[in-house]
Give the backbone structure.
Amino acid sequence: MALKIHPTVLVIGHDVALHYLLGRFAERSGYQLKANTENMSDRDIAAIHPAAIIFLSTEVLAKHRTLLTELAGLDMPILVCSSVIEKARAIELGADYCLLHPLTYDDFQAALTHTPVAKRV
């Protein structure tokens, strides 16, 4: 029996409740969630081959500007959890898609399905 490999969604940031919620959404969508527990380089991230990277807030996204620049050559969508008020800033910082609060499963699913890079995964 072949072992089925689920695509990975990498989460960057520390928020236990949000991580749990995203983990449930990922599991329901057929993805596995991997948390960034330490500072990862672009090479570390490329080795994981994530289907998408989710930053848990606009602040976390802003903190990792250098990493975003390094990830520009990799084909994976950058998503960020944000409020409507922060959406423009998140896009300016490099997000491909915003998961707006309050997060819903349908929004999570749409982000992974409709983000142009995610379709190629």
Remarks:
- The helical segments are 16-29, 42-48, 58-63, 65-71, 87-93, 105-114.
- Confidence is low (pLDDT under 50) at residues 117-121.
- DSSP finds six helices and five strands in the chain.
- The domain at 8-120 is CATH 3.40.50.2300 (Rossmann fold).
